[in-house]
Amino acid sequence: MAQDSSFSAQDSIIRPRKRGGRNPAQAPGALYAALDLGTNSCRMLIARPEDGRFRIVDAFAKSVRLGADLERTGALSRPSVERTIRALQVCATKLRKLDVRHMRLVATEACRRASNGGNFLDQVQKRTGLALELIPPEEEARLAVISCAPLVTQTADHVMVFDIGGGSTELVWIDITNVPPEERSAAVMRLQMDRDIAEVNGAKLVDFISVPLGVATLHERFNDVEDESARFALMSWYFEEQLAKFRPYEDLDMLEGVQGFQMIGTSGTVTTVAASHLGLKRYDRRKVDGITLTEAQIDTVIARMMAQGREGRRNDPSIGRDRAELIMSGASILQTLLRIWPTDRLGVADRGLREGMLYSMMEANGAFPTKGQNDQG
């Protein structure tokens, strides 16, 4: 199962913990909530700061397919809107029940692209009471980088963090050559997504791109191609075409001599590939988050998924029914990125926008020391 496939999968990872028989959501201390409404999924975490980290006390994840048919029509469909609002009503109920005072609720690519995206957000506020913030791609990428920063190794001189979403894929290339090894993770966490700021604490943003293709939009674009191998090749080729303006792709000569390159991926695609490699019949975040996969291991998993066919993937417990339809479009993106850049290893991150939002809010409120690192429970 992918990290965002269903609530039951999430619940198995981050079920509220009890101390002395009491639900931690009822213990003293301010609660924080982060909600990420993407093209395919609606996901929310509720947490509290604890000992320089944060502890998750409740969660919600649902595949709402908000961007279904968006590639063809340019608008959010009525069924998609209704599915999504029902999920957001569940989130609103949780927030009220737990009396959450600190929250950030964001919408991303589907609402950015849809001609009726603004109208949809107005409907959400009227029917659920939730005011969703439509964030730009740069902020989406910044939050993903913050969440992945604890996985940056001391030996990494260059880091690329990528997030394969439902409607878009963000790539951030960071040069930390001038940062002392023990400070590299913290420097990445404080990175500013502004090309005019050369360095922040020694960390330099080399380039950033948001490609308007994710697992849902890329799948939809090539869904009429019947042969799976041909469709996979076309998706890979088309995605690579969109990287033409990304400086580390445009000027591949700049990569000659690069040492200590680390690639970190965060997305349902990446965690599903990791779960499949591990042979997990029930998703376990503790076994997936932070592991490293080789390119050969990833290629083996993708080849096996391709051989399974659609029905085989639907019946594979390590993939899950909700993820089965979109996993190959995500895999085409993943394999393309590994083919282009100088690495044969990938760091797997089961974390993303929600964790980045929680960390940012808590740090801004002085909830824990600046150098504390988060723990998603």
Automatic annotation (TrEMBL):
Signal peptide: none annotated. Residues 1-11 have a biased composition (Polar residues). Residues 1-25 are annotated as: Disordered. Residues 45-363 form the Ppx/GppA phosphatase N-terminal domain. InterPro entries: ATPase_NBD, GppA/Ppx_hydrolase, Ppx_GppA_N. GO terms for molecular function: pyrophosphatase activity. It holds the Pfam family Ppx-GppA. SUPFAM superfamilies: Actin-like ATPase domain (SSF53067). This is Ppx/GppA family phosphatase. It comes from Algicella marina. The lineage of its organism: Bacteria, Pseudomonadati, Pseudomonadota, Alphaproteobacteria, Rhodobacterales.
